[in-house]
Design goal:
eight-stranded mixed sheet; Spore Coat Polysaccharide Biosynthesis Protein SpsA, Chain A; alpha/beta
Length: 244
């Protein structure tokens, strides 16, 4: 049984997926394979219309298919095919480093850890985006909030709570964390950890692809009606409109 299953949900990601897979493979080989531990890579093709699946296979991933375009559903489908003791969900536009996955390896050896996330940094972003990312990192560490781009969870616990709730079209990682801590963490005294020594490098493409008005409207909706927004597909269109 692999120690770790890395699961990447991918919808029309032919532009960035190859680079992400190279980064994941190099980092995991260094952190896990070189220390004698097995890991696997699963990409869930979430009904892509481009070369996403072909690129994933060429990058050494096992590809599974999910016909319904929804992030939580794609992650659940990838998790159903995974065999590792731990599941690591990474976004298709993110590039974890060897150092970050070495920290992940250390967490998999700790009995007190249930769930983990990581702070983030953008590869290329305007100053305002970097400021917002820095603020998120502070809140994430203080409140133990995991970002959807990097979610490490015990596979048994993930399955015990039923995976990601399909009511959500965004923010499903926050709901998952709350259910895990309420049902599993409270009983087993396991906790959430936010890794911060080696931030996850991720893309700031949404800042480039969407105008200030579009981003502002989504932010305000999320601020004043977070549950309704996260459960409404049209309000979360930035994840589903195929703009890449």
């Amino acid at each position: 049984m692999p120690v770790l299953s890395i699961i990447i949900p991918a919808f029309n990601e032919e532009k960035l997926l190859a680079a992400s897979l190279r980064s994941v493979k190099a980092a995991a080989d260094s952190a896990f394979t070189d220390t004698g531990l097995a890991w696997e890579l699963v990409v869930c093709d979430n009904n892509s219309t481009d070369r996403t699946a072909d690129i994933a296979r060429a990058g050494g991933a096992r590809v599974v298919f999910e016909p319904v375009n929804q992030i939580g559903r794609a992650r659940n489908t990838g998790a159903a095919a995974a065999t590792g003791e731990w599941l690591l969900f990474v976004d298709a536009d993110s590039r974890p480093s060897r150092e970050l996955l070495s920290d992940v390896l250390a967490l998999t050896r700790r009995p007190d850890v249930l769930l983990a996330g990581a702070t983030m940094t953008f590869d290329e972003a305007p100053p305002v985006a970097r400021v917002l990312c820095g603020l998120w990192n502070i809140v994430s560490r203080l409140r133990r909030l995991v970002a959807g781009s990097f979610i490490l969870v015990r596979a048994a616990a993930f399955r015990e709570v039923g995976g990601f709730d399909l009511k959500f079209f965004a923010g499903e990682e926050i709901d998952l964390a709350m259910r895990l801590q309420k049902t599993v963490g409270r009983c087993d005294r396991q906790r959430t950890v936010i890794l911060h020594r080696h931030p996850l490098v991720t893309s700031a493409r949404k800042m480039k692809l969407y105008g200030k008005g579009e981003l502002g409207r989504f932010f305000l909706k999320s601020l004043f009606r977070p549950m309704k927004t996260s459960q409404t597909r049209d309000d979360c269109s930035m994840w589903y409109d195929g703009r890449r």
